[in-house]
Amino acid sequence: MKSEKEKMLAGEPYDPLDAQLSADRRRARLLTRALNDTRDDQPEERARLIRELMPDSGSGTWIEPPFHCDYGANITLGDRVFMNFNCVILDVAPVRIGSGTLLGPAVQIYAATHPMRAQERRTGLEAGRPVEIGDEVWIGGGAIICPGVRIGHRSVIGAGSVVTGDIPDDVFAAGNPCRVIRPIT
Where's the Maltose/galactoside acetyltransferase domain (predicted)? Predict the structure, then answer.
């Protein structure tokens, strides 16, 4: 029988009140609190906390506090990822962010989702769908990336966009819902 964590990571309905998941979220909250309390003159401590929170993070990652996430351990960061102030990642499913990617202020990445039908939501079960962001992507401030989305390499997402579907490589996309505006040449 699968644990609730195994169900969560497999994208199956799971109980978020499970003891192990609650403990994992509490760990992430304590680490993000410590990260958010670091000062700009503590880059080594900030880097240590990022590695502890997100063990699969590449070198040269920089996060401007405050930052929030559900678990941290489900986030994979390439090298030289930059997240500006107030980024949020709900990582109930794997979230992969490629090397050289820039996230503007208040970017929100949601791998978490809930059932559409009210009677199913009343059960308290949740689910997740992985999010993948390619290398050298720039996501403008205030953009929201929805569950299950893949953003291609080198693409740019306009500020304030709501990305509900996949975006190919090498395009500028914007809007609500986000759509391709033009190729980047």
Answer: 5-59
